[in-house]
Structure formats: C-alpha cells, structure tokens
Specification:
It is built from 18 helices and 20 strands. By secondary structure, it is of the alpha+beta class. It has three domains: 2-187; 259-610, 3-Layer(aba) Sandwich (Kinesin); 611-676, no CATH class. Strand 3 (289-297) and strand 4 (300-305) form a beta hairpin. It binds adenosine-5'-triphosphate (ATP). Residues 268-269, 342, 344-350, 463, 495, 562 line the site of adenosine-5'-triphosphate (ATP). Residues 587-643 are annotated as: Disordered. It is found in: Cell junction, Adherens junction; Cytoplasm, Cytoskeleton, Microtubule organizing center, Centrosome; Cytoplasmic vesicle membrane.
Length: 676
C-alpha cells in the first residue's frame, strides 16, 4: 500500500518536473524570440539611422552648395541664350533635387513612424516579457512549493511505510517463530506417521496372503453354514409342511366353528323415489348386536338372528371384508359357494356384481385371489380359470361359449372319481381382472364385464335366471409337491318372490315355477345336509346338481339374504329371512367325496357323524354331533342345533390360534368363555 503511494508520488514528482522543464523551455524560447526581436529592431534602427544620416548629409550638402541657379538665371537674363539654357537645365535639376528632397523627407517621416512603431512594439514586448517573467516566477514558486510538499509527503509516506514494514516484519518474525515451534512439535508426529505408513506398507504387502487365508477360512465357514442352513431348511420345510397342514386344518375348523353354512343379511337402502313416496321402512337393527334384525310385520316385531346383518349404509368393502376369508380358502383347496338370495329388486346383483365405480363380491374376489396367489409365488404356482353359466328355466347355458343359446348338461366324470363335470363348458385362464378384456372377443369380455361390473342386464330375463361365476383355483407347490384344487361359485340367484304375488301367466308362470323349483330344491338340499340325511336331493334341480361339490362335505357356503326395507315387500322379506334362518342352522359333513359317493352311488351310505376336534391355544374341543328326531327335521322349528362338546387341556399345545381367531369363533366365545 505504502509502496504504491510512494510510486504514485514519484510519478507525480516526475510529471511536475516535466511540466517545470516544459515551462523553462518555453521561457527560453520566449527569451530567444525577444532577443531576436530586439536585434531586428536594433538592425532596423541602425538602418534607419544610416538612411537618416545619409539623407541629412545629402540635405546638408545641398544646403552647403552655392546657389548656382540664381546666378545662372541672371547670367542667362543678362548674357545669353546659352546661359538661359543653362538656367533652364539648372532649374530642372533643381526641380529634380527638390523632388528628391521631398521623397527623402517622406522617407524620413516613414522611417520615423517605423521607429515609433518599433519602439511601441519593443515596449509592448518588454511588458510581455515582464508578464511572462512574473508568470514564470509564480509558476516556479508554485512548482517549488509543490515539489517541497511532495518531498515532504514522500518522506512522510516512506516513514510510515517503514514503520508499518517494521511492525509487519516483527509479526512475520513472530509467526515464523510459531511455525518453527510447530515444526518442532510436528516432527514427532511425522515420525509416527512415517512409522504407521511403513507398518501399513508391510500390511499391504502381507495382504494378498492374509486375504487368501481369510477367503479360504470364509469358504470353509460358508460351506459349513450352507450345510447348516440346508439342514435347517430341510427342517423348516418339514415344519412348513406341518404348519401348512395345521393351518389348513385350523382354518377349516375355524370356519366350521363359525358354521360351514353362514348366513348374512343385507338390507338395501331406500331409493330416492321410495323415500319421497309414502313407503314405510319396516326394518330396524340392534345397536349392540350386528347379528340381529327386527322386522315390523302386521304390528308385530319379528326378531331374526343371523351371522351378520348389514344395514343399508354398509359399503361393498365392508361386506367383502366378511367374505374374504371364504374366498381365500379356495386357494387352500376348499370349495366355496356364495349365494345372493332375495326377491327381485332387493339388491342381489348389487351385492354380487356391484356397479363399475363400486364393484361387488365377484370382482373383489377375483382381485383378492390374484393378489393372494402372486404373494405365494414362487413356491406355489396357481392357475385360475373362470366359467360363466346361466340357469334359466332349468336349462344350463354356457355364457362364454361361442353359442350362448346352446344347452349344456351335467355329467359324471367317466374316471369313476364321482366328480361331476359339464361337457363343453368354456373356461378361461386369467391372471388379472384386466386380462379378462384381453382374453376373448368383445362379446365374451362384455359378458364377463357384466358379471364383474353389472354394466347392464345380460338379457331380458336376467332377474329370472340364476347367474353363476365359477372360479377354479388349481395350485402346485414345487418344493413340497403339494397340489390343491378349489372352486369358488359366486351365484346371483333369480328373484325369490312367490308366484301368487308375481301374478304370472304363460311363459312367465313357467319361469316363476322353475325359479321356485330350483330355490326350494336348494332349500331341500340344505335341509337334508343340516339333518344329515342319508339322501341329499342334489339332483332335484340343475342349480343344486351343478353346485353339489360346493354344498357338500367340507365345502363352505355363504348365503347373503337381500332384504328390501319397504312395507310393500314385507311378506317377501319375512319369507327370505325365515329361509335364511333355517339355512343358518345347517352343518355340512366332513368329506365332500364321501358325500358325492353317497349321492351318486346306487347304494347310498349314511353320512358320517364323526367327532371333530378343534384346538384353541391350550385346549382341544371335541364336537360330537347330535342326531335329531325326524319331527324336528321336518319342521325345522329349532333355531340352533347345539352339538355336545368335550374340552381337554393340552399338555404340549403345538397349534396356536391367535386371540382374534379365537375371538372370531363365535361359538367358542359363547360356549366356552373361560377359554377365550
Ligand atoms: N346396498 C345398496 N346400495 C345402493 N343401492 C343399492 C343397494 N342394493 C341395491 N341397490 C339398488 O337397488 C336396485 C335393485 O338392486 P338389484 O338390481 O341389485 O336387485 P336384484 O335383487 O338383483 O334384482 P333382480 O332380481 O331383478 O336382479 C338397483 O338400482 C341397485 O343399484
């Protein structure tokens, strides 16, 4: 900084010196010009003086010369013509001389003027010189003063810079001392680092050998661990198989405890028109018990107890929550049948198919199955197929076939397994709900869409036919070699209203008769199953014959009874609920194959009445079915059939039901509160 100031000052001083030199050069030039002007003037003065002197001399000579002319004149006058001529010449000469004199005088005057002029110029120049000299003196004085102040400034700046440089130098010295000290302390650290570096270098040199050794050891350990893991895996696989069997058994028992035939009731909401008309709502609910429904009929309050009652505000999701365990059990190889039962307009199609923006059980079940089977991959490989069947006037139609009007038949498998099958029934393999739109031409996918989304009525008799969506889930476990096969039948039954009420005639009467026949056949089958009859009349209708697999043995059945809340529908609602309550008391037998044999073999055998065991967290409960009297079977008057139970405390319980599972087993809660 100071150095910069000093440099600036030095440049300033140099500039001022240059200016001073320039000023003195100019003064010198002016002096020279003045001298030249003075010399010029002196020369012209001299010249003029010489001319003047010459002129004066000439004048004085003229004056001193004798007056020859007058003499000549007189002589001429007196003496002769010659003289006269001489006089004339003299006069002429005189004239010339006079003229010369005038010229000389004029010249003299001019010279005198020039002299005056020169003198004036000279005095003017002198004055200018004096001014210049004054200015120069002033400039010189200023320059000297500036020089002086600059010199002082320079000295001061140099002094300051020196002082600052000294203090900086001192600080640098101090820093240097600190750095020296640091250096002294760093030296041991450097020695340590060097030592470490050497050590690391040695380690790096040894590393390949150590690595090789470690790899060999690790390999050995890995081999050992793999061996252990593999034996643990074997053990786990064994346990897994055992647990899977237990889980299946447990799930089966849990569902059986809930009842192999479960009955829900769903009350549809009043539509706007009904709400605005003078229709009355005849249905009420028990706020403390979601299994009870009250119906006000002819001034009396009827109570119906079912497994679950959904009020009008229940959502599709809430309904499906209760259904999903049944749906997933078909992945474990169970046959499941879900019916929607009720009079026309009571909401069967809404519950099963739903609406595009809020789908019902059909679509939700398929979605759940797809997600469940994908979670079980890669151990389990599942194949899901769908078929769609309509039963109208006791005729079976293949809705996915090329010709939907073609009638289908139900036949026994020729392999003697006792299985039933429908020759010519079209089945599509699907992997996602979206797949359905891709599998077949528009007509087929629209039929599937109708089943899944209830876009529009399938045909003009859709509410007078039974619509079945049959989903078959076949699984194979590649690690255990297990195979499963389960069937989920989702049935939207035809309207259950009585002929008298419908007032039908002709073809409508036939339709109503067919519906009534198949629905009462369904009731008979359920009654026979409930009563453990030796003969179950599956063949009395196409519907029960087709669903034989899913109604007998260890199959699971859910009946969703749809009820309209209107006073105008009260008698149909009472009928539907009575039917539901009868169905609810049915228990299915243990083996579907034995059941099939019972129905289809020429010598029908009695249904098994074996005891069934169920385990809670620490107890075994053995159920012994109670055989009921024929009169009881005929009237179906009892609400509940309570079998006998024996409870044994387990010494080493190996099956653990979660508390929620146990709580869910309603009968356990009601019958054995101490175990829950
Ligand atoms: N839970 C519900 N929430 C809202 N609307 C419903 C509900 N249940 C039924 N509905 C409506 O009530 C009307 C009749 O329902 P739906 O067609 O499902 O009856 P259905 O019993 O299948 O009749 P059908 O026997 O004629 O097929 C439909 O407009 C349906 O959208």
């Amino acid at each position: 900084m100071l150095e910069q100031q000093v440099q600036e000052r030095t440049v300033l001083v140099a500039q001022l010196q240059e200016q001073l030199e320039e000023a003195s050069r100019r003064r010198h030039e002016i002096q020279q010009q003045l001298e030249e002007a003075l010399q010029c003037r002196a020369e012209s003065d001299e010249r003029l003086t010489a001319q003047l002197r010459d002129a004066e001399e000439a004048l004085s000579r003229q004056a001193a010369a004798p007056p020859q002319v007058k003499y000549v004149t007189k002589t001429v006058e007196v003496e002769s013509a010659q003289c006269k001529q001489a006089l004339v010449d003299a006069q002429a000469r005189n004239q010339v001389l006079q003229e010369q004199l005038g010229v000389q005088r004029e010249l003299l005057r001019e010279l005198e003027q020039q002299l005056h002029e020169s003198q004036r110029t000279s005095s003017h120049l002198r004055q200018q010189i004096l001014v210049y000299e004054g200015e120069m003196e002033r400039a010189q004085g200023q320059l000297e003063a500036e020089l002086q102040s600059l010199e002082e400034e320079k000295n001061r700046v140099i002094e300051e810079a020196f002082i600052r440089a000294e203090s900086e130098m001192k600080a640098v010295h101090e820093n240097l001392a600190g750095v020296r000290m640091n250096l002294l302390t760093l030296q041991p650290a450097l020695r340590t680092l060097t030592c470490d570096y050497n050590c690391l270098k040695r380690q790096v040199q040894d590393f390949p050998y150590m690595l090789e050794k470690a790899i060999a050891e690790a390999k050995q350990e890995i081999c050992q661990v793999i061996g252990e893991v593999s034996s643990a895996n074997q053990e786990l696989l064994r346990k897994y198989k055992r647990e899977m069997n237990l889980r299946k058994k447990c799930h089966n028992e849990l569902v059986r405890l809930k009842g192999n035939i479960r009955v829900f009731c769903r009350v549809r909401p009043m539509c706007q028109e009904e709400a605005e008309s003078d229709s009355k709502n005849m249905v009420t609910f028990d706020p403390d018990d979601d299994a009870v429904l009250y119906l006000s009929n002819k001034g009396k309050l009827m109570t119906f107890e079912l497994d679950k009652v959904f009020p009008p505000q229940a959502t599709q999701e809430e309904v499906f929550q209760e259904v999903q365990s049944l749906v997933t059990s078909c992945i474990d190889g169970y046959n499941v049948c879900i019916f929607a039962y009720g009079q026309t307009g009571s909401g069967k199609t809404y519950t099963m198919e739903g609406i595009p923006e809020d789908p019902g059980i059909n679509q939700r079940a398929l979605r759940l199955l797809f997600s469940e089977v994908s979670e079980k991959k890669p151990d389990w490989d599942y194949n899901i197929t769908v078929s769609m069947v309509e039963i109208y006037n006791e005729t079976l139609r293949n809705l996915l076939g090329d010709n939907p009007s073609e009638k289908l038949d139900i036949k026994m498998c020729p392999d003697g397994s006792g299985q039933l099958y429908v020759p010519g029934l079209t089945e599509f393999t699907v992997e996602s709900v979206e797949d359905i739109n891709k599998v077949r031409p528009a007509i087929v996918s629209s039929v599937i869409c109708i089943f899944l989304f209830s876009c529009t009525n399938l045909n003009e008799h859709s509410s007078r036919s039974h619509a079945l969506l049959i989903i078959t889930v076949v699984g194979f476990n590649s690690s255990t070699g297990h195979r499963t096969s389960g069937k989920l039948n989702l049935v939207d039954l035809a309207g259950s209203e009585r002929i008298a009420k419908s007032g039908a005639e002709g073809s409508r009467l036939r339709e109503a008769q067919c519906i009534n026949k198949s629905l009462s056949a369904l009731g008979d089958v359920i009654n026979a199953l409930r009563s453990r009859h030796s003969h179950v009349p599956f063949r009395n209708s196409r519907l029960t014959y087709l669903l034989q697999d899913s109604l007998s043995g260890d199959s699971k059945t859910l009946m969703v009874v749809q009820v309209s809340p209107l006073d105008s529908n009260i008698s149909e609602s009472v009928c539907s609920l009575k039917f539901a309550q009868r169905v609810r008391t049915v228990e299915l037998g243990p083996s579907s194959s034995s059941r099939r044999h019972a129905e289809n073999s020429s010598t029908s055998s009695s249904p098994t009445h074996d005891s069934v065991e169920v385990h809670t967290h620490a107890h075994k409960i053995t159920e012994t079915p109670v055989k009921r009297s024929q009169s009881q079977l005929a009237t179906g008057e009892e609400k509940h059939i309570q079998p006998r139970y024996q409870i044994t405390k387990l010494s080493n319980p190996d099956l653990h039901l979660s508390p929620s599972d146990v709580q869910d087993a309603k009968f356990t809660r009601q019958t054995f509160p101490a175990l829950v």
